[in-house]
Every structure is written in structure tokens, then in C-alpha cells.
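Q: What would this chain look like folded?
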Amino acid sequence: MHSEKDLFLATEPLHLFFKAAIPGAIGMIASNIYFSVEMLLIGRLIGQTAFAAGNLALPFILIAYALADMIAVGSSICIAIKLGEGRRDDANRIFTAAVFIAAALSAVSGALIVVFSRSIFSMMGADPVLMHDAVEYITVYALFIPFTALAFVFDNYLRICGRVRFSMAMNIAMAAMCLAFEILFLYVLDKGIGYAALGTSLGMSITCIICIIPFLKGKMTLRFVKLRITKEILHDIFRQGLPAFLSNTSGRLTSIIMNSMLLHLGGPAAVSVYGVFMNIDGIIVPGMYGVFDSLQPAIGYNWGAGRKDRVRRIALYGTIAIAFMCIAFTILLELFPVQIFAMFIEDADAYSSMAMHAIRIIGLMYIVRWTSYACQSFSSAIGYSRECLMISLCNAFVFPLLMMYILKGNGLDGMWLSLPSAALLTALLAVFIYIARLRKAVTK
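A: My prediction, written as C-alpha cells:
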């Protein structure tokens, strides 16, 4: 009996939740929190202009990572279902093809960033000083993307192989290494914003190498086999991974559009306020993602094995967990908006009034955000890609842009209000999709 079968199919669902979701959430937060920590160090040690430049550039970097994540998520869903059906050879073929495709797409995206970043920042309205810092920051990240993106890819495969604790340990180690390099470059050596990107890239690259080694030695459930990319493999990977990619990408595009509008409405100060919120969001969203991403192999495995009773219970525990996280985060933002903002900006008093007002408004989105995210993640885990795609696009792009357009006449307040309004609309859509489609599928 294989270890992943013991974990996913025989473990009592509540025990499985604590064994997989909790370490997964901790690991995912650790693997993403360094972006927030990096921005915190940039704001405190380099200055407000560099902080605004970093937040202007970061969405483009995350879009590049989203390409590799699309392959990782799409292939992970296919692999988990194949393993549940007992088709191990097919799972290995998908795994091998996915690693190659992710590496190739990452290299292409890095090259495009290097070529076009300056022109894009100019179109957004960045002044020369802001543009210089943003280009320096994004170029360093782009050069390392073929290596750093694979750290996220292999993290998914470690969890499929049942190595949840090892995945958590590597994510924590990666965060620690990134932080150590950041402190060395920014605090000890007093370097600029490009070295902030270098510090994080070095930490991620080292982690990537460590994670790949067990697969190369053949010590995992998944093994490298002869590379053979077929139309069927490509179709399955992109069909299952496209919703995650569009969700990540459209969300970053929304951030880019928001930053451009904020530059015109409130200047770099408004971009900094929004940047602080996005860095706060970079803690709670990976936590939600980590819960369901860690449970996804178990849900897919049980779905492939026909155990829908276990599927329902595992998904329920995951939904309760992220609901609790979101509500707790809303309370935190409502009670301590100024203190949270002051963590990122050294001269926070100059922006405290705008920051307190904005963060309290935007923080309301978490009251309902868990609804759409749970429905989206569950749809993805059981292979309902169309439903997942609809929710993810509306959540990250369609509804935010719609509300920005409707509320733009209210100035900065309209921009802040557009996010909780969009979250409410997406939650209503998710409830409708669950009642109309998903509930029938899991109760048959």
C-alpha cells in the first residue's frame, strides 16, 4: 500500500485536515510572506519612493510566476486523479512534461519582462526616479525566474507525494533564507532596491535545488520518465490550470490598472497605501490558498476513487478554516489600521489619515471573500474547470473593474470601495454556482 493512499484515502477526514491543511497553510504563508517582508524592509530602509516602485513592479513579477503556477496546479489536479484511479505511469508522464513546460514558460516570461518593462512603466505614468527603481527591481527578478518559479512548482508535487511536512519545512527555510539575504544586502551592506530582489531570488533558487534533489534520486512517488508531451497532456494541464492562471493574472492586471488610476488620483502616496494593503493581502490569501491547495490532492484522490462522502467532509473542514481566517483578519484590520500601515512606511504619519480610512474600507471584503474562494478551490479540485474559471475571473478582474468604473466618480473613496463591492458580487455568484452545479455533483 502506497503512502499517499494511506494518507488520502484511509485517514479520517478531520485528522487528514489537521495533518495536511495546517502545515500547508503555514508553509504557503511562509513561502509568500517574504514578499511582504521585502516590501516592509524596502519601505523602512530605502524609502517611500522605493516602496512605491516595488509595489508598481511586483504585479508583473507575480504574473510571470502565475505561468509556472498554472502548470503546477493544472498538472497536480490531473496527477492526483490519475493516482486515485491507480494509473501511476500516466501520472509520471504528466509530471515530467509539466516540469519541462513550466521551466520553458518561465524563461520566456523573464525575457519579455526585461525587454518591455521600461515602456510599460512609462505608459503607467511613472516619473524618472520611480521608473529607475521599478526597472532595476523587476529586472533582477526576471533574470532568476527560470529557477525561482520552479520552487513553487515542486512545492505542489511534494504535497501530492504526501510530503506535507517536508514542504512546510522547505517553505519556512526559504522564507528564512530570503530574509537573511535581505537583511545582509539592505541593512548590513546598505544596498539599493535591486539587491532586495537579489536576496529573495537567491533564497528561492537554493530552495528549488533542494526540492528537486529527491525527485532526481527517485525517492518520491512521482518520478521523471522519458519526456513525451502529447496533445492530451497539454489539454488536461491547461484546462485544469487555466482558472488558477487567469485568477492570478487577472488579479495582477487589476492591481496594475488600480495603481495607474491611483497615480493620477493621489500620486505615489495613494500607490503606497494600496501597496500596504496588497502586502497585507499577501499574507491572508496564501493562507487560504495553502489550506485548499494542501487538501486538493486528497480531494482529487478521493474523487478519482469514488469516495464522495470523504470529499464532502474534507471540503467542509477547509471552508470552515478559511472562513475563520477571513473574519479574524477583518477584525484585525478594523482595529489596528494605522499600526499595520506604520510597519511598512517609515514616515507613516504623513499618510496615516488616508491609510486608516482606506484599509478599514478595503478590509470589509474579507467578510465574504472566503465564500467565493472555497467554491472556486473546490470546483478546481474535482475538475469542474468552467465553474472555477467563472468564479476566478469575476473575482479577480470582471467585478473589480466593473465597480471601479461605477464608483470612479467618487475619487479615491470609489477606488477603495470597489474591492469590497466586487467581493460581495463574487460571493453571490459562488453561492449560485454551488447550488446550481456543485451540490448535485457531490451528493450523487
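DSSP finds 14 helices and no strands in the chain.
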